[in-house]
Amino acid sequence: MISFKKLVAMPIVAAMLVAGCSSAAATASPNQAPAAGGATVATASTGAGIVLVDASNGRTVYNFSSDTANSGTSACSGGCAAKWPALTVPAGTTPTADAGAAGKLGTITRADSGALQVTYNGLPLYFYSGDHAAGDTNGNYPGWNVTKP
Question: Which domain holds residue 117?
Answer without folding.
Answer: 4-146
